[in-house]
């Protein structure tokens, strides 16, 4: 991580780097992400087939060449394929759906090398009919995302059509993405989520957010202090499925083929530890930074942006409350954000979304390029541009591909314990994320570590995802597990439930290579900080700073930490984030000292 990211944790706006906003470029390219041939990636050798009466010229626009992997497929035309060709196309569609974990995008009228040839009205109608037959054969649904006319050096009107194909995998209930919601206090985070998930606009006084609050003091103050979860579904046709029309969570899960789970985090600075825990523990796929149009970048906004970047969570921005401001004020906030995003420690390319085309292209480029940062301007009261955000969520593909998912599923079970409940007539229930493996009802696992570094045996009862029952839990999915009459006092946040065959590394001490993002004075041996590693949150003491007597802001070093309360389950390479007052730093674990090794060194020290 670039040490210059420390600018987001200290004061000052920094200087603007020389990147250009891609919003205007996107519009100039007719909203299809078109690149000139010379600027595109190297073309793979493909036999270019041209439709009748079409001849490429020097100004023919191009998309990037089709990739062998991924969920995007280019097709020039699909007119009356033979039976053998039809079967081959069906197999190809299954492959693209598998790559996109249930979603694929087809560009019709595009050559494999990315050339936008286009099709006549008749050929396009026949191609879409074939695509419908293919989708029907494999049990998928299709929805046209956008159409684009291409008319260059020719009198014939030609079209390019982009189609979304969605099929929930047979062994899965729905596609699931997790989005962490960040932003300063009073920026409208909870209100926006209330409008999206309840289906009703806000009254301007925060009515929409009331259903999201978990505590009385949150309702009284209007400020989120805990982590809450809300769901927004999309059916196979891309239509929104939420709590409107008196739907229950179970009905949403049954109807939806894609689910967005929002993790609503606290904006106030005194709840920062809760916000960091939500970002590190719940493994969000994306982060949504909400900025109020009338206040701009204020309070914890810059800090939240820095946290998301430090943890390498892709981030997009929503500017809310545009109904309270003049157009000039909104534009000033957009320019302010663009300046921050272009800073050397950030190096993002802002993309202002102002149309459906921008939203579709933004969703696709956002995942493909980590530097693209879509910016939405909307209102939760008037509903301005809310539809663009919904289109974005509908198109947004998963980050990990099917191959990475399968590799994690083949490993032993590791479930991170983030929440602990006692439910009447059910018993002890734990909530968290399955990091690896496949967990089923009735599985025998062990949970720990205890204060002495031991593990207790337990049996998984029932499993629920998004408040509806499921029998199988797969790597990367969040759920709650019922543990029956297991003693709740033996559990705490930060524990893990693992397969009995696993030999987990339980540590009191660990070494990490860190960057000190911000510190008022110097960082040295004996300093105490709160350490966040995944779902682990505990105070640790700096036992040694190797190679240096002390650290200052922006400096790197390998540091030895020691937990002060109980040992924890850690893994090599895990991201480390620590804080104490204004002191903040990030890094990764480079060496573990398991309990046996630690106890041996302690005995040797005592004997000496």
From TrEMBL:
UniProt keyword list: GTP-binding, Nucleotide-binding
Any one GO MF term held by the record is: translation elongation factor activity
**Every Tr-type G domain range:** 174-402
InterPro entries attached to this UniProt entry = EF-Tu_GTPase, EFTu-like_2, GTPBP1-like, P-loop_NTPase, T_Tr_GTP-bd_dom, Transl_B-barrel_sf, Transl_elong_EF1A/Init_IF2_C
Give one Pfam family, short name only. GTP_EFTU_D2
- Is Cytoplasm included in the keywords of this UniProt record? no
The Swiss-Prot or TrEMBL record describes its family as follows: Belongs to the TRAFAC class translation factor GTPase superfamily. Classic translation factor GTPase family. EF-Tu/EF-1A subfamily.
Q: Which PANTHER family match?
A: ELONGATION FACTOR TU-RELATED (PTHR43721), GTP-BINDING PROTEIN 2 (PTHR43721:SF3)
What is this protein's record name? Tr-type G domain-containing protein
């Amino acid at each position: 991580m670039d040490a210059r990211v420390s600018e987001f944790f200290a004061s000052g706006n920094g200087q603007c780097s020389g990147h250009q906003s891609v919003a205007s470029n996107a519009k100039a390219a007719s909203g299809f992400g078109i690149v000139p041939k010379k600027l595109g990636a190297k073309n793979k050798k493909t036999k270019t087939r041209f439709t009748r009466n079409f001849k490429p010229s020097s100004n023919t626009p191009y998309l990037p060449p089709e990739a062998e992997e991924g969920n995007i497929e280019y097709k020039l035309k699909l007119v009356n394929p033979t039976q053998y060709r039809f079967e081959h196309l069906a197999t190809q569609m299954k492959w693209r759906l598998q790559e996109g974990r249930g979603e694929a995008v087809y560009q019709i009228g595009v050559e494999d090398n990315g050339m936008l040839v286009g099709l006549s009205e008749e050929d396009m109608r026949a191609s879409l009919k074939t695509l419908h037959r293919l989708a029907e054969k494999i049990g998928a649904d299709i929805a046209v995302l956008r159409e684009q006319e291409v008319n260059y050096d020719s009198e014939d009107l030609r079209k390019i059509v982009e189609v979304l194909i969605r099929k929930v995998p047979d062994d899965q209930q729905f596609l699931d993405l997790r989005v962490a919601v960040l932003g300063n206090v009073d920026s409208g985070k909870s209100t926006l989520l209330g409008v999206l998930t309840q289906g009703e606009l806000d009254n301007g006084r925060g009515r929409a957010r009331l259903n999201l609050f978990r505590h009385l003091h949150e309702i009284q103050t209007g400020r989120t202090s805990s982590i809450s979860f809300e769901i927004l579904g999309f059916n196979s046709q891309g239509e929104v499925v939420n709590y409107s029309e008196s739907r229950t969570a179970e009905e949403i899960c049954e109807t939806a083929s894609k689910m967005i789970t929002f993790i609503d985090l606290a904006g106030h600075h005194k709840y920062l530890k809760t916000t960091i825990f939500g970002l590190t523990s719940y493994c969000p796929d994306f982060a949504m930074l909400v900025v109020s149009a009338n206040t701009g970048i204020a309070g914890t906004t810059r800090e939240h942006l820095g946290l998301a970047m430090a943890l390498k969570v892709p981030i997009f921005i929503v500017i809310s409350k545009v109904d309270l401001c003049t157009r000039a004020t909104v534009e000033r906030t957009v320019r302010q954000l663009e300046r921050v995003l272009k800073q050397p420690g950030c190096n993002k390319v802002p993309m202002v979304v102002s149309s459906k085309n921008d939203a579709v292209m933004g969703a696709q480029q956002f995942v493909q390029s980590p530097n693209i940062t879509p910016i939405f301007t909307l209102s939760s009261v008037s509903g301005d541009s809310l539809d663009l955000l919904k289109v974005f969520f509908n198109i947004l593909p998963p980050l990990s591909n099917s191959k990475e998912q399968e590799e994690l599923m083949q490993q032993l079970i590791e479930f991170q314990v983030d929440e602990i409940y006692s439910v009447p007539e059910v018993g002890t229930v734990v909530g968290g994320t399955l990091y690896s493996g496949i967990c089923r009802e009735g599985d025998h696992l062990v949970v720990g570590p205890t204060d002495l570094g031991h593990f207790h045996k337990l049996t998984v009862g029932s499993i629920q995802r998004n408040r509806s029952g499921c029998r199988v839990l797969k790597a990367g999915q969040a759920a709650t597990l019922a543990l029956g009459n297991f003693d709740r006092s033996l559990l705490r946040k930060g524990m893990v439930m693992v397969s009995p065959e696993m030999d987990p590394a339980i540590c009191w001490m660990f070494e990490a290579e860190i960057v000190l993002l911000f510190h008022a004075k110097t960082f040295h041996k004996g300093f105490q900080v709160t350490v966040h590693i995944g779902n682990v949150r505990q105070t640790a003491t700096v036992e040694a700073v190797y190679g240096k007597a002390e650290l200052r802001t922006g400096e790197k070093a390998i540091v030895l930490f020691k937990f002060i309360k109980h040992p924890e389950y850690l893994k090599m390479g895990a991201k480390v984030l620590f804080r104490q007052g204004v002191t903040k730093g990030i890094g990764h674990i480079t060496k573990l000292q398991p309990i046996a090794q630690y106890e041996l060194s302690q005995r040797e020290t005592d004997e000496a």
